[in-house]
Amino acid sequence: MSGRYQLYLTTAANPANSNHKLLCYHTRPLAFCSIHMPSQSSSQSARDSLGRRLFSMTWPMLAGVVALMSFQLVDSVFVGMLGTEPLAAMGFTMPINQLMIGIQVGTGIAATALISRALGAGKADYAKRLSALVLITGSGLMALLALSVYLLKQPILHALGAGEELFIHTDSYWLPWLVSSWSHAFLYFGNSLCRANGNTRLPGLMMVVTSLLNMALDPIFIFLFGWGLPGAAFATIVSCTIGSAVIYSRVIRHHWLAFDLQQIKVLPALGSIAKISLPAMLSQLMPGMAALMATRIVAGYGATAIAAWALGTRLETFSIVIILALTMSMPPMLGRMLGARDLTQVHKLIWLAIRFILVLQLAIAIFWLLLRPLVIGIVAQEPATAEYLASYMLIVPVSYSMLGVCILLVSSCNALGMPMRALVTSAVRLFLCYLPCVAVGAWLGDMTGLYLGVLAGNCLAGLFSWQLYRQGFKKLQAGLQPERTG
Could you tell me the pTM of the whole model? Predict the structure, then answer.
């Protein structure tokens, strides 16, 4: 044997990934080649490594989401201690708050997708300037919206049906609340920049710290200082300001922002942001519309049915909290993989997360089934409410796995630059699967039929979302193919 030459065949998705080796042994009479594919142990090692990366990115977000939910619950409890009217005055901010959160989350989704993709493609300078553009655009847009809401306060309250007796509370609360909403959005944009750069621990930690600080300041500002309802908003302003100081000091220290925007084409960059953020904003607003329609159907069965439905909705929120954390941790990973043109890893990561969700949510459904008598005894005192909730806990949690798959794939489509597909998936889930099944189930079998409709709607949504994702992924592969072969 005169010599041995080793050539590397790269994967189609990422030229840097040289897993397949072609070993050529040249002899004088002939030459023969043998292809050495990765062993099963190395493939398992790669999957384990991907799983560890996903876990390390997700657990800080999980802690943050749980803390955020806890803070919102505690905030409502403290305001409720002031009486019915202050609580109602805060309740009238919820529709506007949903709109503002939809805009900030849509902007954050665009930021995470575009910045992580630029970093994955090795365009670090462009990512820094894009980060600055997102921060300026998002903060300015939120400030403009807050100012508009403040100037149109009276017409908005009249349109929502607020009574004159509440105006004494809204007059003092409206401005601090709008400032607190902007402060929260500014902090959220900083969290998005950190996540886009691969740091989820600091945003998760700040979500926990600011939530705990808010909970600690609430009784001080509301009761001790005697500020009442505006005290809740001031507590949010202070906690978000402190969180923003920590987040942006880290962002500046790592040079993740560059404000010399003349180095990039601003209008095309704004177009890229709008292309992802606008559909994402609509996706954020649609669940509220669907929830309102479903609640109207449930309301036909009386107050006890509504009470059980409200308890079930909270049960669902806490059941899918890990999925919500995944939707915050996975987009930066997917964006970088897409920027590096590594679609093989993209699909592996999504499939790994789907399998995890299916197993986890099945375990959670069994958990709720076993704890059903205990939970019902604690939260449902009325016999009729307890009966409705027992049926809910028996039927609906089984479908959380497919609901989780749908939520995950919507987030993944946004991260992969397919915002319209994400929007279509959300619309199909809510308006073609969930609501029709709920309506038909209620028509056929009262509340038990309605719960079965929720089960069927969530399962259909999961199946449809998988098909839509697969179609989009194939188009994504086809779109990258010419550049790989050219």
Answer: 0.74
